[in-house]
Design goal:
Helix content: 10-25%
Strand content: 25-35%
Largest sheet: 8 strands, antiparallel, barrel
Radius of gyration: 21 Å
Mean pLDDT: 88
Structural class: alpha+beta
Strand order of the largest sheet: 1-2-3-4-5-7-8-11
Order of helices and strands: HEHHEEEEEEEEEE
Number of helices: 3
């Protein structure tokens, strides 16, 4: 009797899995793991020259960068990036429950942590002159950022990086996404690496869970105790399939 019930349950589970699989095939989504490289919309020529970096041809996306910097002055022009490296190789993963995690190559350079946060659907959006509608998703996630070691192998906790991470998903090309990322540094520690708290509050100052500023201007002087943007980087990422 038990074996018959188990067999019935197994058949039901397989049927449900088949239905879910077919539904996902008919309605593709950005859920999954992605791989790609982000580069500044407006590179820093001095940094590129110092590091011997030459931007590969065919990798600039002017239409996307205009969207990313629409709130800047002049509108649609991204200021010169002050991000410390000219490119970021990354592996973001968007989960079905709205959680996003992100790995990037700089974890092996400055030993910052894996990033984690949330994303949400923000409606349909047009980027290119052809007027094609894409599905816009926006995320923010946080990683812990160290200071470089001074006189020893152990780093001091510096604060957090919380970027604005935006992707545009094409259901007719579901294994490729375009997007941009604007990393903001939130200096929430003192010189000893301890978290600075808001007066009479259990929350850090500045609060990394507060809203990200609308305008990313890496060339504006950093205001004391306020988040600062490093620049706007754009990317094309591809789904990491099971093959």
């Amino acid at each position: 009797m038990k074996s018959r019930k188990f067999a019935s349950f197994l058949v039901f589970a397989i049927a449900v899995a088949g239905v879910v699989s077919v539904a996902q095939a008919k309605d593709p989504s950005p859920v999954g793991s992605w791989f790609g490289v982000a580069r500044p919309c407006t590179p820093n020529p001095g940094l590129s020259a110092a590091l011997g970096f030459v931007e590969p041809s065919g990798t600039s996306d002017e239409n996307l960068c205009k969207v990313a910097c629409a709130d800047n002055i002049p509108a649609g022009v991204c200021p010169t990036s002050q991000f410390p490296v000219p490119e970021v190789t990354m592996i973001p993963t968007m989960n079905a429950d709205g959680v996003v995690t992100a790995f990037d190559f700089a974890e092996i350079l400055d030993h910052h942590t894996v990033a984690q946060g949330n994303y949400e659907y923000q409606g349909k959006f047009k980027i290119d002159p052809d007027g094609k509608e894409l599905r816009k998703f926006q995320a923010s996630f946080i990683w812990f950022q160290p200071r470089p070691p001074t006189g020893g192998p152990i780093s001091i906790y510096s604060g957090v990086i919380k970027p604005r991470f935006v992707t545009f998903f094409d259901k007719k090309n579901p294994d490729v996404m375009r997007g941009y990322i604007q990393p903001y540094y939130w200096p929430i520690t003192d010189t000893n690496g301890f978290t600075v708290m808001q007066p009479g509050s259990p929350f850090p100052s500045p609060d990394p869970l507060s809203e990200i500023p609308a305008v990313c201007d890496p060339n504006a002087p950093p205001a004391a105790g306020q988040p600062h943007c490093f620049g706007t980087l754009h990317f094309v990422i591809r789904r990491t399939n099971s093959h």
